Amino acid sequence: MRHKERCRRCAAESRLALGEREASLSLSLWNDGAMSVYMRAVLADWHEPPFEELATFIAETSPFQVQAADSRGWAEFEALNQQGNTVLAVDLWTEADACEEFEELEEFLDDLDGPAQAREAVRAHLRAASAVVGMQVLMSAYDESVAAANAIIDFLEQRERVLTQIDTVGWYDGPELLLKELD
C-alpha cells in the first residue's frame, strides 16, 4: 500500500519526467532504430555510491569503461568498448521517475512462468524498491552490450536486495532465475 500511495503522490511529476526522458531518448545517439531490449537492476535501497566506484570496478573487472553523459553520473551514462564505441546506454531512475517503471514491471508479473512464491517475492521487492538502473541493450553491439550490462549488474549486486529483470528472459536474484518469460 505504501508503494501505491507514494506513486499516487508523484504521478503527475512522473508523467512529466517520463515525457522528458522519452524525448531525450528519442534524440539519443543510442537509438539505432532496432527494437530495444532492456536489462534492469531494481534496488530496494539506493544510497548513491560515487560514480567513480562503478568506473573503477568496471575498468578492473571487464574490458569496458563507463562514461557519464554531460557529467550526470548515475543519472545517465554509457558503457564503451575498448575502441571507445558506445555499447550500452544506462539510466538511473529514482523516486517519482521510478514509480511508473515499478508499476509497469509489476503489471507483467502474472504473465511470467514460475512459482507463486517467487512472483510474490518480486512483487514485494518492486513495492519496496527505491531505484532502477535501466540498461538499453544495443542490438548493433548485442554481445558487448550484454557483457557490459552484466558487469554493471555485478557491481550493483554487491549491495543487498537487488533483483534483475531482463526483457525476453525474466527475473533473477543473483544467478537464480525466479520467473521466466513464456515461450
Features:
183 residues, eight-stranded antiparallel β-sheet, 5 helices, 43% helix, globular
Multimerization status: single chain
Strand tally: 8
N→C terminal distance: 32 Å
Q: Enumerate how many helices there are, as a single number.
A: 5
Mean pLDDT: 84
The portion of residues forming beta strands comes to 25-35%
**Low-confidence spans: pLDDT under 50, at least 5 residues?**
1-32
**What is the rounded Rg?**
16 Å
What is the succession of H and E elements? Answer: HEHEEEHHEHEEE
Helix share of residues? 40-55%
What topology, given as strand order, has the largest sheet?
Answer: 2-3-4-5-1-6-7-8
Task: Sum up the overall morphology in one term.
Answer: globular
The class by helix and strand makeup works out as alpha+beta
Largest pleated sheet: 8 strands, antiparallel
Describe the structure.
This protein has 183 residues and is of the alpha+beta class. Helices cover 43% and strands 25% of the residues. The chain contains 5 helices and 8 strands; from the N terminus they run H-E-H-E-E-E-H-H-E-H-E-E-E. It has an 8-stranded antiparallel beta sheet with strand order 2-3-4-5-1-6-7-8, sandwiched between helices. Helix 2 (51-61) packs across helix 5 and helix 3 (95-107) runs antiparallel to helix 4 (116-128). The termini are far apart. The model is unreliable at 1-32 (pLDDT under 50).
